[in-house]
Amino acid sequence: MKFPYAQILRFCSSGAIGVLLGYLILIVLTEEVGVWYLASAIVASIVNYTSNFLFHKYWTFKDRESHEIHRQIGKYAAMVVFLFLLGITLLYILVECLRLWYLFAQLIVTGVVTVISYLISRRIFANEKTAASSP
To answer: N or C: which end of the chain has fewer CB within 10 A?
Structure first.
């Protein structure tokens, strides 16, 4: 099995749209509106994950099938909840315990969550041929 460079590039570039929008929301809510950084991060995460489902299904993983979409939505939602809780927990630890600046901490969290998200999403959107060839 060859390394999926193109797929990873599509995953990162399509995910970047949601991430940039999320960061914009995080900064505006925290800096301009005065919302607590964790509440801002919650709103930003919801926007990010909502926008990424369709990009990843149809463009990143080129999954055009619709008969599995309900199962995929369920699995994707479970992944989002897991990654959301992981991300918020890591953000809290990095800011409150390690005293990192919230935006730097969010960059670290984004990197960790991106890797885990790719690995899980690959399984969610795998078609039968892809799933059969995966270990």
So the answer is: C
